[in-house]
Amino acid sequence: MIRTAKDMKTYRKKIKAALKNKFLRKALDNFASSYKASRAKAFEGMDLPALKGEIARGKDQALIVLEDLYLRFKAEAEASGAVVHLAATAEEANEIIARIARDNQVTSIIKSKSMTAEETHLNDHLEARGFRVTETDLGEWIIQLRHEGPSHMVMPAIHLSRGQVGTLFSDVTKKPVDLEDIDRMVKVARKELRPAFLSADMGISGANLAIAETGTLGIISNEGNARLTTTLPRVHVALVGLDKLVPDLAAALRILRVLPRNATGQALTSYVTWITGAVECGASATGKKILHIVFLDNGRLELARDPVFSEALRCIRCGACSNVCPVYGKVGGHTLGHVYIGAIGLILTYFYHGKDNARAIVKNCLNCQACKSVCPVNIDLPFLIKQVYRRILADEGSKPVKNTILSAVMKNRRLFHTLLRTASALQGPLVKKEAGVLRHLPFIFGKAHDFRTLPALAETPFRDQWSKIRPRIQNPRFRVALFGGCVVDFVSPEQALALARLLAANKVQMEYPPGQSCCGLPAMMMAEEETAAEVAVQNLEALEPRQYDYILVLCASCGSHMKEGYSRLLAGKPEQAEKLRQLQDKLMDFSSFMVKVLKVRPEEFIQNQRRVAYHSPCHLCRGLGVTKEPRELLGTAGLDYAPCKDEDVCCGFGGSYSLEFPEISAEILGRKLDHVEATGAEVLVTDCPGCILQLRGGNGQTGGKYPGPAYRGNCGR
Ligand code: SF4
Ligand code: SF4
To answer: Which ligand 1 atom is the nearest neighbour of the CA of 650?
Structure first.
């Protein structure tokens, strides 16, 4: 039975318990590293972006005509001897299958892996009606014996050690099993499952693909059990989500090109089974297989019509969004999901298993964009996750007080900045002056927040210094506006000051438009979309992009939100379209500006060859797609760049995420700092003030070795 926390208090307890599981973290960490390498190899030489786009478009077109595809499939499959059903709900699907079993005098059922059957809790339903059900996929069998749900959509038992599996098998067989001998355990499973295969009256499978033009099912698997399940017993029932329908074989083969590669890094799985109609079957009295195909709606038809969420139905269940998710890597699928796991699980849970099961888990997202970057069907998972949270708040008709306060403050820039200035003036007793950090955290933070020091607010924000320090450049090469963002402006103005000096030395006239406010990303993260849109308009008005050659950002999160998020937010405001286009065309991050526009050369830097490690901020490498320039700049600046493991994995900051889930944030940060330490670098460089806050805070708290501004390295003119 799957139990998911319905409130934050219970969820936090679950998170703490998951974080204590050292084996889980190690197993998921090892898998994530090997997965990345094998995925990259599997896609070598393929035009993945083009293929992704093609599949996504095909899926979207199929979703528009889903009911027609179903009718076409039904006609074709029934012409080949199958019986096709459509179940509106999970309960109805389960009852149809139970009825088929009863009508055919079935007592024993074997099952191959099916997430759709997990979605409907089919086993519970059948067992409650007296049928004996045996899972035959090794991982599924293991979790069935443990009476738990899958912790990954492709590898359901990834959370278990060989020792746990061996002990389980000893208990089941009542014979000792060598806890280290995996081959032996596989043999035990084979021996135990064989009688179930041979005596089963009915086999239940899922399907990865349902081809409408021929009424064909496609099943992709690595164990022979799916083929045995669908061929040996006299009755075969396939339970298939309506979203698996594709128009033709060409569409199915396109999906087949990416699914195994993206799921496990295999060019192809060991078995790809195509089933068209009822074929010969020695176990059946008539000599023909009794084939029933049950399509499950359970909200899919409505979801397909949803203007915001329909893209979630593109999902081909490859599980990659879990494989790369830093949160999943720390807490596993039983904590980051309900039946469906990981990023897509946070979305589908709301639609298939209700808001109560989604309410707590949907907040557990860093917005690091890693899932989006590997999704083979281009689902904007982080965006949809925030939209689910927004729907839940709307359904419940009330929102947290912090949302109301944040909205009121954000919409009023002067009030927002006055509050920050006031906080700066009052923070004195809390500040360790020489270090510029808070001596202790305000009482609202618990012990869990002690994993990092937090910086004090700057005495004077950058905006209040600007008029006094603004350089005036004669005949500038470029005129640029800096969009500072809140952290640079009010916490780390030294970053903007360094930029101003650097640009002046390069004959670039920098301006700091004073009407600029927060970029609005924190409001988006809290599902306050109207506030985020209002702030976006304020920034567009303040920046007047037409007047500048470039709009520079030091904060990648602000930059990627303005480049991508603003398009969505301002889609209904045509009067802002031209300004927005100019802003997005001219927006550039610091490293790209240095490398591509100023084209800085090594002789302009002090070549001190200090060894530096680099952290690639999520919103720079995945949000803005900037990966080469920062590393190139390190080399140009005469630094000895030491590549670091998982450079592009999130540092665990995620804005308000690190306040909401400090335990997970701390774990992710700790891992990041370990990797950096392993490089032997003297300086850690990164280019996002949020990451700097997190990395410097974690490093400071552990008495670490990377003190001082991380920009020191690449500004060493
Ligand atoms: S955005 Fe990052 S943290 Fe959120 S679900 Fe995706 S991978 Fe996980
Ligand atoms: S959402 Fe994308 S990455 Fe995640 S399981 Fe579905 S297809 Fe795979």
So the answer is: 2
Confidence at residue 448, expressed as pLDDT on a 0 to 100 scale: 84
Burial class (CB in 10 A: 0-12, 13-18, 19+), 509: buried
SS3 of 82, please? coil
Last residue of a domain, one of 301, 332, 363: 301
Q: What is the pLDDT of residues 434-474, one digit of tens each?
A: 778 887 766 667 788 888 888 999 999 999 999 999 999 99
pLDDT of residue 408: 94
Answer whether residue 422 is part of any domain.
no
Predicted pLDDT at 228? 96
Query: Ligand 2 centre and the CA of 631: distance in Å?
Result: 30
CATH code assigned at 697:
3.40.50
Complete edge-to-edge strand list for the sheet that includes strand 587-589:
508-511, 478-483, 550-553, 587-589
Q: What is the pLDDT of residue 1?
A: 64
Q: Which CA distances in Å does 654 have to 236, 327, 557? A: 47, 11, 9
Which pLDDT belongs to residue 431? 85
Residue 456 lies in a domain: no
Q: Distance, CA 582 to ligand 2 centroid (Å)? A: 33
Give the burial string for 323-335 (b: 16+ CB within 10 Å, else e). Answer: bbbbbbbbbbbbb
* Residue 178 structural domain: 65-301
Residue 132 inside a domain? The answer is yes
Q: What is the per-residue pLDDT across 549-575, written as a single tens digit (0 to 9) for each?
A: 999 999 999 999 999 999 999 999 999
Helix (H) or strand (E) holding 551: strand 550-553
- The Cα 365–Cα 336 span in angstroms is 9
DSSP for 392-422, please give it: HHHHHT---HHHHHHHHHHH-HHHHHHHHHH
Indicate if ligand 1 lies below 6 Å from the C-beta of 587.
no
pLDDT > 70: what percent of the chain?
Answer: 97
Token pair, residue 451, equals 């994993």
- Token pair in block for residue 368: 């690091």
CATH code, domain carrying 254: 3.40.50.10420
Q: List pLDDT tens digits, range 363-372.
A: 999 999 999 9
Residue identified by tokens 């438009």 is 513
Domain ends where: 246, 267, 301? 301
- CA–centroid distance, 310 to ligand 2, in Å, is 14
Q: How many CB atoms lie within 10 A of CB 192?
A: 15
Q: Which atom of ligand 1 is nearest to the CA of 372?
A: 6
Cβ(90)–Cβ(116) under 8 Å? no
Distance CA 172, CA 574 (A): 66
Q: Strands 431-432 and 437-438: what pairing? A: antiparallel
- Residue in 550, 615, 623, 637 with CA at minimum distance from that of residue 587: 550
Tell me how far apart the alpha carbons of residues 678 and 673 are, in angstroms, rounded to a whole number: 9
Q: Check pLDDT > 80 for residue 713.
A: no
Residue-wise DSSP of 173-236:
HTS---TT-HHHHHHHHHHHHHHHHHH-SEEEE--SEEETTTTEEEEEESSTHHHHHHHSSSEE
Q: Is the CB of 367 under 6 A from ligand 1?
A: yes
pLDDT at 442: 65
**Range of lowest pLDDT (299-308, 396-405, 623-632):** 396-405
Count of domains observed in the chain = 2
Q: Is residue 199 part of a domain?
A: yes
How much is the average pLDDT of 40-68? 97
